[in-house]
Amino acid sequence: MDRFKNYDNDVRQCVTTYEETIRNHQQRYFDVDELEIVIDFYLDQNDIENLETAVRYAEQLYPEHNSIKLRRSHLLCAHGDFNKALSLLKELNQLEPDNTDVHYALGTVYGYLDQPQRAIHHYQLAAADQYRLDIIYSNIGDEYMKLHKIDDAIKYFKKAMAIDEHQDFTAENLVLCYNELGQIDKAIRYLTDYVREHPYSDCSWGALGNAYLFANRYNEAAEAYEYALVIDKTVFSYYAGLSDSYLCRFEYSKAASVLLDGIDYSDDKSMVYHQIGSIYFDTNNYHTAVIYFHKALSVDPYMDSSYHSLALSYEQMGDIANAICAVKQAISINPMEAHYHLTSGILHEKQSDNDIAESEYRLALELDNSTCETWLSLSDFLFSTQRYEEAAQLLEEAANTIDPIADLYTLWAASLFMAGHNSQFLSVVQIAHKYYGNDPKWDAQLIKLCPECIRLLSTL
Question: Does the residue 349 lie in any domain?
């Protein structure tokens, strides 16, 4: 790929001359303007290693030049050192209070530091020279979003789009704003008019697709994404949106196929393979799901979620041994994920490895006691191993910790009955009836767990 594709010949010549000089350890004169071009090129390319080298080279030649100090602030931001960048920019602002480049950089840094009011102030000062107002207006819109001033954000996103029809994230954010206001139809109307005036604005077609998705108008969403791809087939988000449209229409094979078509344009191929695997998993095509989860892991062998999904696929295929191997890999990568330990417990219980199963259930609950599934899994294990007293105590703790569901009350009542606590059993049944009504299905589930309780239930 030609890294100079979107740059003029002056930039190409300047950067290649600089790189030849560095590579061959030559002595050559560069003026400040030339070095600014080189540094800004690496900044645009997000080439941090070469950016750092170029800034240091420029600082050796022009240690006191303010424009080079400004580029040093950009480098600090690239390294995430925003406070140091802010300190340097404040110095430059005192020296050159009317420098719009400094104000723009201050706006950017304050944005990173989550100080939107200050960011907006400096962006507005940066707009004084009328340069790249589309970007400035879009950034101001972003800051108003942080302040939850959605109407102001919309106003600035529209101002940015009036200047440049190729503002990728501006149109998307505009849709998000309208959706937050519950006015997605307004977004659709605005973008429909916009693409009529700017039919080659692929990002606006993509944003229109997003708006149709929010409105549950899946056929029109798919059509918008297809238009976007005709204009620019290299943007993966359009493939992802089109895939979502197909998923919402239950066209699963098309959804998977579209993701595969666009995978070469994704920066995260492992995640795309994982998404394809998930589509096949959700349609019970576990053998094909396994293939794509393995593809994801071939790209990123540390993708714990793919190992976990692989374990679930093997479980559905009845291959518990391979499922256990896969979930062990997931846990080795991310040992603090409670759900992985829960899956491990379920798998080991299926293998009758009860000691390991109980240990995994308890670890899952220790890591995350906020989900009913974890409490129920351990309680059900205790119940199935006839440890009714322990199960009842655990379920009482669960009822006091989380918002209980019907299944929790069912198992709690059954555990109390099997442990011989009849009065407590009746109390829990009455609580369940109060929450869920006298639902015969709930009573039937309880009787299935402990058939002998039917006589006691009849006393209520």
Answer: no
| Structure tokens, 200 | 């080659």
How crowded is residue 121: how many other Cβ atoms within 10 Å of its Cβ? Answer: 17
Looking at residue 349, what DSSP letter applies? H
The verdict on residue 156 lying in a domain is yes
Give the Cα separation of 240 and 258 in Å (integer). 8
Q: Mapped to the 3 state alphabet, what secondary structure does 274-333 carry?
A: HHHHHHHHHCCCHHHHHHHHHHHHHHCCCCHHHHHHHHHHHHHCCCHHHHHHHHHHHHHH
**Total count of domains within the chain:** 1
DSSP code string of 149-182: -HHHHHHHHHHHHHH-TT-HHHHHHHHHHHHHTT
Q: Is the per-residue pLDDT at 354 higher than 80?
A: yes
Measured CA to CA, the distance from residue 267 to residue 269 in angstroms comes to 6
- For range 444-451, the mean pLDDT: 93
Mean pLDDT for 397-423 is 93
> Which pLDDT does position 440 carry in this prediction?
81
Q: Cα(first)–Cα(last) distance of the chain, in Å?
A: 77
At 325, the pLDDT band (50, 70, 90 cuts) reads very high
Rounded CA-CA distance 250/245 in Å is 9
Mean pLDDT of 151-174: 94
Spatial contact of 311 and 343, defined as CB atoms under 8 Å apart? yes
Percent of the chain scored above 90 by pLDDT?
89
Q: What is the pTM of this model?
A: 0.86
Q: Is residue 424 part of a domain?
A: no
**Among 225, 242, 304, 234, which Cα is nearest to 270's?**
304
CATH code (residue 178): 1.25.40.10
CA distance 55 to 278: 45
**Residue 139: inside a domain, yes or no?**
yes
Domain span at residue 207 reads 132-250
Q: Do residues 73 and 104 make contact, with C-beta atoms less than 8 angstroms apart? A: no
> Could you give the CA distance from residue 39 to residue 52 in angstroms, rounded to a whole number?
9
SS3 166: coil
